[in-house]
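WARN no homologs supplied; continuing
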Amino acid sequence: MSCQDCLNRREFFARSALAAAALAALEACGDGQIGPPLRNTTGGGDPNVPPGPPLTISLASHPELATVGVLVELDRERAVMRTGANSFLGLSRICTHEQCDVEVRSNQLECPCHGSLYAKDGSVIHGPNVSSGPITALRQLDVTIDTAAGTITIA
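OK structure emitted
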């Protein structure tokens, strides 16, 4: 058997040590997350506000919005809650820590990236499980109600 491409023991251990050192350096470079979703912030836009046009939904398509105080996910970046007979609170689902998309769980908003937890009104319950400074409340979004059409628009 020819061994032109074989490594001797010394080369094998040297390369293994180099690979282990590179892996350790990569692990030390962050908090284990590859990174948040990329946001389009051209033009100086707020990365914590959903980009693009407003979202209009039919209230009939979300029967849970008939109940005051129930937080409902509308799309990847927006949630809404009925606060009164004809009032709603719109919230961005973009975490203010590193712009990951938060999830509605048990009528609260939780960031799967670093563990930040927000109340149903978007206020901070506790910040991320890393030492990168304080976070702020989720951004409130404008909500327009069209009672005749039975729709709300979240900008």
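The domain at 55-154 is CATH 2.102.10.10 (Rieske Iron-sulfur Protein).
OK
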